[in-house]
Amino acid sequence: MIIDGKDKALLGYLRRNARASTAQLARDLNLSRATVTSRIERLEKRGIINGYTIRFDENYERGQIHAHVMIRSNPKSSAYIVQQLKNLAAVTALHAINGNYEMLAIVEADSTESLDQILDTIGNIEGINQTNTSIILSTKFLR
Question: Which of 9, 2, 14, 49 is nearest to 29 (CA)?
């Protein structure tokens, strides 16, 4: 999908603050409000924007434990594993990757005890052969 520089700029602003008003976006991008609205609708219709989300306050985020869980699995179990991980609210993202592991799950927990339980749940999913977890100590920047 081809998008122009104004669309890229608009997406950048929305990535930083999806709640920005159309008027503010128009001022920042030097476009009319109608043009901004039209561009957003077009980006949504084309599937480039398919939803909006929230970002938590830094203090709240610091209280959460974030981890990357590398998953080695039986390839024939991939669809089942994906569905099981999708059903776990603590798993916020799942990526297919190359290398020694097939998947990378992004996990959030509110305590080490909770993280331990989540990791046990993931490790017990049929078809998962091995996991390797790295806890994120700090985030230098997030886009």
Answer: 9
* Angstrom distance (rounded) from CA 54 to CA 48: 18
Give residue 68's Cα distance to chain centre.
12
**In CATH terms, is domain 58-135 a member of 3.40.50.280?**
no
Separation of alpha carbons 130 and 87, rounded Å: 20
In this structure, which topology does domain 5-45 adopt according to CATH? Arc Repressor Mutant, subunit A (1.10.10)
Q: Per-domain residue ranges for the chain?
A: 5-45, 58-135
17-52 per-position pLDDT tens digit = 889 999 999 999 999 999 999 999 999 999 999 988
Biggest alpha carbon distance in the chain? 55
Task: Kindly report the pTM of this predicted structure.
Answer: 0.67
